[in-house]
Amino acid sequence: MAWDFETDPDFQKKLDWMDGFVREEIEPLDLVFRGPSDPFDPARRGPAHAMAPLKKIVQKEGLWACHLGPELGGKGYGQVKLGLMNEILGRSRFAPTVFGSQAPDTGNAEILARFGSPEQKKRYLEPLLAGEIASCYSMTEPHAGADPAEFTCRAELVGDEWVINGEKWYASHADFSRFLLVVVVTDTTVPIHKGASILIVDRDAPGLEVVRNVSSTIMEEIGEGVHGYLRFTNCRVPKENILGNPGQGFEVAQSRLGGGRIHHAMRTVGQLKRALDMMCERALSRRTKGELLSQKQLTQEKIADSYIQITQFRLHVLYAAWMIDKHQAYTREVRREIAAVKSCMPTVLRDVVYRALHLHGSLGLSNETPLLALWQVVPEMGIVDGPTEVHKFGVAKEVLRDRKGTEGLFPSYHLPELIAAAERKLASSIELDVGNL
Length: 437
Ligand SMILES: Cc1cc2nc3c(=O)[nH]c(=O)nc-3n(C[C@H](O)[C@H](O)[C@H](O)COP(=O)(O)OP(=O)(O)OC[C@H]3O[C@@H](n4cnc5c(N)ncnc54)[C@H](O)[C@@H]3O)c2cc1C
What we know:
Layout: H1 9-32, H2 45-60, H3 78-89, H4 95-98, H5 105-115, H6 118-129, E1 135-138, E2 154-158, E3 161-172, E4 179-185, H7 192-195, E5 196-202, E6 208-214, E7 227-238, E8 242-243, H8 249-283, E9 287-288, E10 291-292, H9 297-327, H10 332-359, H11 361-365, H12 371-381, H13 388-401, H14 415-425, H15 427-436
Parallel strand pairs: 1-4
Antiparallel strand pairs: 2-3, 3-7, 4-5, 5-8, 6-7, 9-10
The structure holds flavin-adenine dinucleotide.
Residues 104, 137-140, 145-146, 170-172, 216, 227, 380, 383-387, 389-390 line the site of flavin-adenine dinucleotide.
């Protein structure tokens, strides 16, 4: 099979159109509407008003909510194409919403389309896909994140209703979402991977309280932010609000993560390229000691290292996307590549953004370029959607899976044994060689 790193010309035209549209029409919104929830909260009237005509244009171009597969009523572009689209969307905070591709709504729509009943699709998926409402995915708890076995937020079936009790933490967009997909323990007698379920909870369900909002930037006051600290106190939802079957929660959840991680990684590539653009522009403009920064070898090294890391990372993400398209399933190999990409993302972002900041000197450390905001995202990348360690563990597990250790005293690559075996195999040739001496 041929290797091909090219984008087909028709799709490239769409990407070129997207690139111009994002730069010219959407990026101005980033500059004017700078509140943390502005791109996500449909109730923010100014941003919603500015986005409405842009969304219509995207829909007319046939590029709205492209993440759903054809069997689910979407375009069926596959992950490579979606990745390339997200690379462009990553430049702007507003772009994913304008293109109907905003997390967590994308993943939520995916699992609603895959596992939802016709009623659930009508009530939740349709307005979500139309961009009319926001949604939330709530799994992390205040005392437990990376290890789901520690989750304690419970739901019990009482009559025709699920009764939920417990707390959730860092539930993005919870406060202004119309509904939440909440991971709850429904069976404590089996391991969590078989005993958790996902319930659809309306934001105004009695017993659901936003204890406070939490922010991931230091600029906001305590209580502000877009991530919800939630408490469920005898919160009741109808029995039919389960997504999939009881105990199927993790299976349902898993199916939303693969594509989402690729899109997130490609949006990060978009941000990395933007940081490199800034680095180059500055290096080609700023003079010191009689020459431009770009003429200094230590600056050239920063630019070269950044370009190399971004290119390696980008190709790895696209490779993972290609694997998903090829296998059409989250096989072990596919999961290994997705985890590998997720694991190295914080390092690449840290290295490139740090170099860009540093090269800008005090201007880089000011609030007058996009770099400081980008720097703040660096540690987030290693935590959101699971800590780096957990993903690295997954990579190592897969890499080690089909290998075995040494049975004898020395390893299989111990040269004395290898040479002796090779000499036995090539004895007749060696004899002739000795005869030549
Ligand atoms: C910006 C942002 C948005 C988020 N949005 C959502 C959301 O919408 N919904 C949601 O449910 N959650 C969300 N989260 C929460 C996120 O999923 C969790 O923060 C993440 O899973 C880690 O859980 P934790 O914070 O409890 O960290 P912990 O599980 O306490 O881990 C803390 C640290 O312990 C170490 N560690 C943990 N496990 C291991 C291990 N197995 N081996 C070695 N070291 C380990 C790592 O250093 C890790 O960073 C969001 C988080 C952020 C930062």
